[in-house]
Amino acid sequence: MKDSRYIRAISEGLAEELDRDGNVLVLGEDVVEGGPFSVTKGLVGRFGTKRIRNTPISESAFMGLALGAAIAGLRPVVEVMFMDFLTVCMDPLVNHAAKMRYMFGGQYSVPLVVLTAAGAGGGAGPHHSQSLEAWFAHIPGLKVIMPSTPYDAKGLLKAAIRDDDPVIYVYHKGLLRQAGQMPEKDFTVPIGVADIKREGTDITIVATGLAVHQALSAAVGLQEAGVSAEVVDPRTISPLDTATIVASVKKTGRLVVAHEAVKGFGIGAEVAAVVAEEALDYLDAPIKRIGLPSTPIPFSPTLEAALLPTADDIGRAAREACGVAVEQ
Amino acid sequence: MKDSRYIRAISEGLAEELDRDGNVLVLGEDVVEGGPFSVTKGLVGRFGTKRIRNTPISESAFMGLALGAAIAGLRPVVEVMFMDFLTVCMDPLVNHAAKMRYMFGGQYSVPLVVLTAAGAGGGAGPHHSQSLEAWFAHIPGLKVIMPSTPYDAKGLLKAAIRDDDPVIYVYHKGLLRQAGQMPEKDFTVPIGVADIKREGTDITIVATGLAVHQALSAAVGLQEAGVSAEVVDPRTISPLDTATIVASVKKTGRLVVAHEAVKGFGIGAEVAAVVAEEALDYLDAPIKRIGLPSTPIPFSPTLEAALLPTADDIGRAAREACGVAVEQ
Amino acid sequence: MSLSGDKKVEMYRSLLLLRKLEEKTVEMTMAGQVPGWLHSYLGQEAVAVGVAAYLRLDDFVASTHRGRGHFLAKGLDPNRLLAEVLGRQDGVCGGKGGEMHMADWNVGVIGSSGIVGGILSTATGVAFACQYRDTDRVVACFFGDAASNQGSFHESLNLASVWRLPILFVCENNGYGEFTRQQDAMRVLDIATRAQAYDIPGVIVDGDDVLAVAGAAAEAVGRARSGEGPTLLECKTHRWSGHYTGDPQDYRSKEELEDCRRADPIPRFRGYLIESGLLTEEAVQKVEAEVVDAVAAAVEFALNSPLPPPETALADVYGVTQ
Amino acid sequence: MSLSGDKKVEMYRSLLLLRKLEEKTVEMTMAGQVPGWLHSYLGQEAVAVGVAAYLRLDDFVASTHRGRGHFLAKGLDPNRLLAEVLGRQDGVCGGKGGEMHMADWNVGVIGSSGIVGGILSTATGVAFACQYRDTDRVVACFFGDAASNQGSFHESLNLASVWRLPILFVCENNGYGEFTRQQDAMRVLDIATRAQAYDIPGVIVDGDDVLAVAGAAAEAVGRARSGEGPTLLECKTHRWSGHYTGDPQDYRSKEELEDCRRADPIPRFRGYLIESGLLTEEAVQKVEAEVVDAVAAAVEFALNSPLPPPETALADVYGVTQ
Ligand SMILES: Cc1ncc(C[n+]2csc(CCOP(=O)(O)OP(=O)(O)O)c2C)c(N)n1
Ligand SMILES: Cc1ncc(C[n+]2csc(CCOP(=O)(O)OP(=O)(O)O)c2C)c(N)n1
Ligand SMILES: [Mg+2]
Ligand SMILES: [Mg+2]
To answer: What is the pTM of this model?
Structure first.
């Protein structure tokens, strides 16, 4: 095992797969220089501009280009700097990449990875802060992953690159400096398998991305209040590992779902709905959801902070669900 | 009162608002000729090509253009022929129309209506059949409506045109010939208010669009089996009238949610989640959701029919929830 | 590289197959045998056949909602094509795609799209893969005049230009996007002008003259194969029928519709072949008879093909995870 | 219509205000006082001021992530602009927009966008409204060289062209999109060439020469006001700083960066004003002093403005339903 940061986990994962398979390449705006968060930094030195390629500012065209390359057998990783920018390239992703295997009768594989930064914090403002994973999870044919630790970030990235379906790989900017351990050797983390980040018996907290860490921090406070929280990190949003989530709720009898995306019609709704479908009789308290209220993300850090979900919000919801006095 | 068909309700609603307010105009591909489903047919004769305007095939530009017109005080209705095509104009809608009032500190109103046809049936295939309302419902700043009857179609359209926020108006192609009654005189249906399409006591069926009619038809069969079903039609998806839904479930103790969109991460998840949050203790059975399985919509009508949700699916789910023998 | 006499005769056969199969398909559509809409290719056949003339089996085409002609010309089996149009199990996509969404990688048919402009970037990507792998394979990507107003046109041509990708952007200018005339959707009438925005050649050709199309395509294919990058090739042609089968075309005058038919590429090419001694009147009859047989065989094949088994509706959403 | 001496002096003052306020804002950014990123406009001031010269208060501008210069030139209050950059309550958008998302309809600032190419269609729509209402108001829409590779550029220019909308598309060509040189993103070096794709005038001007910009803008504004439709105006200019404040610019040579500064539009224009007797050395000092004061006042105003009350975070998502 070795220590690594999240950002390094991504770069290393890319480098290893680029090394392993000549069909892998990285495309995007300024990926040669490292992209907005340096996750591709240094790759060009080892792999050259044939395989690490800056594109014009034309997300729609280079997404479609990557799709064409993928059906022709390459394995492109496309960086779209900020998840908010996916609005300009939904068509190649949703109407083409997602449907190509199916609508053409199983002729094609689409080994395409879209690497994109989501999440708010620090005054990036309304066009550089959104978490839109729910859109992609709703589209059959796409896979969506949101790693929360360096280990998952690397293992899932490598799995995504080796996967024969289009994968939207969403990382939260706030996680880039997150530290953690991982094997020295080649490893992958399977897509579609949730991870119990903390075991507990009284309440299940299903959390994604940055919220996993908020949940873990809330769990410490809950422990002090005598509540044992289990933190489940789906890691993959679609296909969702409902079995692990349902099993956890059956054990604990309570559920809080937390993410940074807007609460309404977010992925937390799906988690809650699955549990209300499959484990209703096990529930001892209403399901609580934590997410952004129904607003865009404002620029001013004061305003932003007023809206973003926190560990406290999760802790408070969990206490309420458990009938434990809520701190002021 | 008078009889009308759904398609006529839309055309009339447009004509009346065009008549009432010189700021209203209709833009889109071939709207002069009536668009793909003739909902704008005949308007040009009365209002001329200044106000009924064909656009080039550039959804992204004419959506943005409509937005610019809206902040400048016009009230454009933009037709995007098929909901699937919204993939090419997500940016003006999501990053601009939805956020403009907010991010510019309340300076702007955005009285923009997007009129679009959703839904499958009849071999329209993977690019002309999708129901993507969940995407827009997840975006703060947008309103989403899905009328199921001629009355709602007209009343909500007129309300949408008079509304100061961007409204995505989704109609299902399969409803266009639907007949119903409506007042002779000017009327609107308020956005954000659900409608109980059928009262009942044993189970609540929340259904949208075409599924409302499937639910009503299922309710007849259920009645014969001794189950009294209440059918709630949210009409507005966002902002969702959760009060009406929750009150109904508190009364009946059971819930089925039905829509044609893909089940996973669809709007049914939000309905289920709200109920699991606000009325858990009233639930006598697990919540059931009916929706498209996780597939694109195939072309062949045989395959399409194998996937699309039906009245029978709703009836079966309701019987299961009520513990009534399910017909074979 | 000029076209041999045999090749020209083959092109004539191809033109005729496109025409006759299309007539039959339109007829079946009017008879209610075809689900969905049908976008007829009648009148535009010379574009597909001319462009295909210099493509190899291992080259590619990509296309639109009006794409069956391109596919047939590239070599897609008419039987499986028609079966797909009917939504049958033996259709080239098992009935899942239908008229607007068809692909057959084995003969170099990348696919088509129900989204106008939707396929341009994908086609550009296949051309990218051809270049990345140091092959000399090329892509011909078809689209309409109206599609050239979509952002994807601009972005794809720019990307192909800056990376010098081996691709022909073939604009089939039939003067209409649905019911809207070209001049109501843009102020340039020559789409080829738009090539200047990317510093690539923009070529205009009579799209009803199959040899002219082939000649222009030959040059563009040559450029693409030798690493000189993309060409925008505009073929001026005529859409005989409405936008879809059943469109009453109130927006076109009778004269205009008659003019359309006068541009028919087939008698023109036949005349040339006979004049230049490449085809006798007898041979013409023979080709015609063979094509009629092929069309009949396709119809029989397609109608006899079963509807796809319902359970296939759930298959092929995702691949098998490794 | 030529510019009066007074107007020219006013333009000089405007140039200086843009420059000095920018220098201050960059300084504050380096000192950690500005949230988010800052995209400096240093070096490009002549474009904003030149284009604004012929705009009336009731005309409009729309802009980009690098937009503060355009807004100041159009008349946006520097105090409220800087307060917005700092995310304060008295910012022109109450702190919700910040540097990249600013609007002030009262002075004709439609808004800006953090999405490259995102504002072009909206600006086109405002021009549409001007035309629909039979006014002679016009819109100037700014964007960068790299933005001209986005589909929205193509679609918006085509739409504006076909409907002859009263809009100037002002491309500020600084040779870079972030860290990528223009020639690595497109093969045409003159963006103005792209006007041909829409059959509208494409004009190239020295963007570091404020009078040249104003002259070209005057013509384009005249066309727009009189119903002749849009113009694509390319202003060749220089981005002195990095893409964002803090960008080390490893990708540019020292010589290139020095050349940039040599193109400084301000001494050039000052020289002209003095030579032509419109400004004395004393007057220069006076203008400078006034601008320095205005900047100091803006800084004081902005720093004294409170952070926005947290509850405003929930306001203005929707309007009040009627
Ligand atoms: C994004 C999108 N917008 C609109 C449509 C509807 N539509 C289908 S074909 C067509 C016209 C296309 O015209 P053109 O590109 O000239 O091709 P042609 O039909 O003339 O072959 C339109 C508007 C669509 N399928 N996709
Ligand atoms: C859709 C989108 N893609 C990428 C970006 C990231 N980005 C911000 S500015 C910029 C470069 C823009 O270059 P140009 O248009 O020339 O304007 P300049 O910065 O030179 O003024 C990029 C790529 C973005 N904000 N939006
Ligand atoms: Mg056409
Ligand atoms: Mg630039």
So the answer is: 0.98
